[in-house]
Amino acid sequence: MSHPDHRMNLRPLETPTGVSAVAGPHDIGASPGDKKSKSKSTRGKKKSMFETYMSKEDVSEGLKRGTLIQGILRINPKKFHEAFIPSPDGDRDIFIDGVVARNRALNGDLVVVKLLPEEQWKVVKPESNDKETEGTYESDLPEELCGHHLPQQSLKSCNDSPDVIIEAQFDGSDSEDGHGITQNVLVDGVKKLSVCVSEKGKEDGDAPVTKDETTCISQDTRALPEKSLQRSAKVVYILEKKHSRAATGFLKLLADKNSELFRKYALFSPSDHRVPRIYVPLKDCPHDFVARPKDYANTLFICRIVDWKEDCNFALGQLAKSLGQAGEIEPETEGILTEYGVDFSDFSSEVLECLPQGLPWTIPPEEFSKRRDLRKDCIFTIDPSTARDLDDALSCKPLADGSFEVGVHIADVSYFVPEGSDLDKVAAERATSVYLVQKVVPMLPRLLCEELCSLNPMSDKLTFSVIWTLTPGGKILDEWFGRTVIRSCTKLSYEHAQSMIESPTEKIPATELPPISPEHSSEEVHQAVLNLHGIAKRLRQQRFADGALRLDQLKLAFTLDHETGLPQGCHIYEYRDSNKLVEEFMLLANMAVAHKIHRAFPEQALLRRHPPPQTRMLNDLMEFCDQMGLPVDFSSAGALNKSLTQTFGDDKYSLARKEVLTNMCSRPMQMALYFCSGLLQDPAQFRHYALNVPLYTHFTSPIRRFADVLVHRLLAAALGYRERLDLAPDTLQKQADHCNDRRMASKRVQELSTGLFFAVLVKESGPLESEAMVMGVLNQAFDVLVLRYGVQKRIYCNALALRSHHFQKVGKKPELTLVWEPEDREQEPTQQVITIFSLVEVVLQAEATALKYSAILKRPGALGHPGPEKEEECDDEPED
Predict the structure, then answer these.
(1) pLDDT above 50 (res 106)
(2) How far apart (Å, rounded) are the C-alpha atoms in residues 351 and 442?
(3) What confidence score (pLDDT) does residue 34 get?
(4) Helix, strand counts (H, E) of the chain
(5) What number is the average pLDDT over the span 686-714?
(6) 383 assigned binding-site residue
(7) Mind listing the pLDDT tens digit for each residue in 299-312?
(8) Is 392 annotated among the ligand-binding residues?
(9) Is residue 277 part of a domain?
């Protein structure tokens, strides 16, 4: 790492005597419900704060009988006493109230819960508009629906310019779930970016949490309508600790200087309030910490939880490392990677020994006899300009009968990763490359990622290809799978391909194109791009006609200073025809391979499914859209997609309205998951909701996804290149589960990285002004989509210069009336009505705490900005 670090003594911790009776803030993180459950005093005796976990046998029996329920725990980052697990029947999430009920489980853990008696269920009052009680707190949306654009970086390769645009690498295969190109900056995940951009002070403390919104009380619930009750439960067992048990945060001395604990332990306060406070031994702290604690007030540390006893409301831990100053990009980045369990260490010597040793490496002569030789074909890559790991290439050859031979050529990574080798094991464990704004943590050593496997131009490369004979309308006449050798003739960027698409009859000057192999001309490449574009348009039209769904959301791209690496600016990434071209053929290849391996190995195929939206959340959204007068058809993925292309106005803010509605429609969506076909009995469960296809997999990105490496091996076995995989279905499912976990962690890290850089940008370049559109209205706050930057922020009424504010529902439409204090005593107070789709002016400004920024609503009628009259025009519901 570039910054100095203070290495800690990592000896095992013993449980400190008397921990349960520690002086200080006993009830950190405890909800009112927690406090009620405790006795009035535990002084002088140990009292268990948490219940003892059930035995494995009792848990197994309870799950079989249906008296216990398992699920992934999600903790609300805004109100960390609230947590949820999904309901197995797709109904409203099951509520878990407080730290005590969570029973030491952390966010993301796979837990087993027991339902509480009905009189203890959560009462959701019908007039409440606080919908935070369930849904996607972090971006639990399937990344295929958002379509990942993985940020590529190459600061070192941009020596000719002080600035570098960090754009997103488009992987078309990731658009499978309908979420468009973008990393989901809009989903709630961005509002809970660890210490960086979450508004913990306001969200956890300052923001008023009124018990008249929702409450969990013992009362006679028999008279209440079923819809107003939310099943509540407590955690009785942790099946799998998926949370890393690592956290970044700050060291503090204990409050009671006279206690025995003060002489032995310091208090670690995590930046993420969902993680408990942690006792750490003073012997693990910097040697001068006790004497000079203020010197470390802004130092970011990593701490790992090693134990959490039943009789202690704080966990026990060990300091792992001092990262550096809070607010700086590299320390914060390392903290994010550590918290999410990303292995960013150097590859071991044992792993590196698995790589070809005699460099420069050349393809062995005998390999050519085993493969179809395509080196003379016009094949090229289309990627972000900064991309180094080039997974895929395309070709398009016109045939005499008017049809086309179209090829998707994917790097043959499995050739270089021997099964069972140390390299294979580390790739399986990492499972995915992790893309940050400023760098990539690769799944494989860079020699493979950027050289031997990467389909760099004018170099012989080993590939796995899918080649079709297609009509100009995209109808498949023939299909071939096989191992190949290619020689890419050029490396096009999306910008290059886009300029070719936009200038179909013009010759593009050689100075505006990358080097092209002398065996092929720029005209040949240009025509191939045009032919692919024409076919891709027809494929896309047919996909959506067949019922596919896409939820496009905004994504930020940054301009970084070449010297400092700090963000200089940002813009919304534009998704254009060149992106769509690549996407269509990657989707086509993934679907073709899915059918091929499933036919060959119906019990052993690694596929990817996307379950339909969560029933209760979808029903709630349908009801909301009906109340808002939005004619959205939720009957199928295709119907929803059609609605989203029609249900917004034709004014200049129509895109913003669509973004708001798209965000709402994203919330009920579930994760897309890898799975082994032999472990699901019902083929209907194989379906991919967003793509509306029966079978799907990932084949096109083996350099950065281990699932694709496994699929390559399965395809090789299906084609007779190798023996069948020696993997039992349950073993393959375990690997699939691990890939799911690591992809979600990677997605979280990517979002946090984006949030980190944006927070730095606000600090360095702010305040930033923008128009914003209201996305949600709560009792004492409202959420906005900041149009210029595509980020979502919450604005709190108590942070504004208001005389008063009033929440009501007009019909069932939430409405917040703000009464502004007049700037001049002679003026009358100004009223401002906030409702869904209201257009407002906001200012993003940095706060004193490192990497925190807030959104402040500008007073209506301010000079140069829309006044109340103009704003009222924008409050109209979108036209049909």
Answers:
(1) yes
(2) 14
(3) 43
(4) 20, 38
(5) 97
(6) yes
(7) 999 999 999 999 98
(8) yes
(9) yes
Asked whether the bond before 767 is cis by omega within 30 degrees of 0, the reply is yes
Residue 17 forms part of a structural domain = no
**pLDDT at res. 88:** 87
- When mean pLDDT is compared across 214-223, 270-279, 623-632, 842-851, the lowest value belongs to 214-223
Residue 269 in tokens:
């306060």
Return the structure tokens found at 176: 């499978």
Domains contained in the chain, number: 4
> Strand, coil or helix: what is 278?
strand
Q: What would the two tokens of residue 288 be? A: 């001068």
Per residue in 5-51, pLDDT (tens digit) is: 333 333 333 333 333 333 333 433 333 344 444 444 444 455 789 99
Distance between CA atoms of 107 and 102, rounded to whole angstroms? 10
Two tokens, residue 874: 């924008």
What average pLDDT does range 327-349 have in this prediction? 95
Domain boundary among 177, 205, 236: 236
Judge residue 588's burial from the number of C-beta atoms within 10 Å of its C-beta, 0-12 exposed, 13-18 middle, 19 or more buried.
Answer: buried
Residue ranges with strand state E in 61-172: 68-72, 74-75, 82-85, 94-97, 110-115, 122-124, 149-151, 163-166, 168-170
The pLDDT value given to residue 736: 97
Give exposure, 521-548, as e/b (b: 16+ Cβ within 10 Å): ebeebbbbbbbbbbbbbbbbeebbeebb
- Domain termination residue (choose one: 306, 326, 346): 326
- What CATH number is associated with residue 816? 2.40.50.140
For residue 117, CA distances in Å to 47, 100, 114, 232, 555 come to: 24, 16, 10, 8, 44
Count of residues making up the chain: 880
Residues 729 and 770 in one domain: no
Q: Are residues 322 and 443 in the same domain?
A: no
CA neighbor of 198 nearest in space, from 857, 856, 850: 850
Contact in structure between 319 and 285 (CB atoms under 8 Å): yes
Q: 378, 364, 444, 376: which is closest to 411 by C-alpha?
A: 444
Beta bridge partners of 164: 560
- Tell me, yes or no, whether 744 and 782 share the same domain: no
Residues 290 and 375 in one domain: no
Residue 651 lies in a domain: no
Q: Inform me whether the pLDDT recorded for 119 exceeds 60.
A: yes
Expressed as residue numbers, the domain containing 853 is 766-857
> Other C-beta atoms within 10 Å of 210: how many?
14
Determine the residue type at 655: L
Residue 71 carries which side chain, given as an amino acid letter? G
Rg (CA), the chain: 28
Is there a single domain that holds both residue 306 and residue 366? Answer: no
Place of tokens 């199928």: 636
Q: Is the peptide bond before 360 cis (omega within 30 degrees of 0)?
A: yes
| Mean pLDDT within 674-687 | 94
Kindly tell me if the per-residue pLDDT of 205 is higher than 60: no
Q: What is the pLDDT of residue 207?
A: 38
State both tokens at 61. Answer: 């029996």
Question: d(Cα 497, Cα 474) in Å, to the nearest integer?
Answer: 20
Q: How many CB atoms lie within 10 A of CB 832?
A: 22
Return the structure tokens found at 590.
Answer: 């993934």
d(CA 583, CA 579): 6
**Does residue 819 belong to any structural domain of this protein?**
yes
Q: Name which residue leads in pLDDT, 179 or 465.
A: 465
Residues 784, 718 within the same domain:
no
CA–CA gap between residue 127 and residue 304 (Å, rounded):
42
Does one domain contain both 806 and 748? no
pLDDT grade for 260, boundaries at 50, 70 and 90: confident
Residues 605 and 487 in one domain: yes
DSSP state of 272: S
pLDDT digits (tens, 9 = 90+) for 825-834: 888 889 999 9
Pick from 26, 87, 22, 419: which is nearest to 231 by CA?
87
The domain that contains 78 carries what CATH number? 2.40.50.690
Residue 851's pLDDT band, with cuts at 50, 70 and 90, is: confident
Specify the 3-state DSSP secondary structure of 557: strand
Percent of the chain at pLDDT above 70?
80
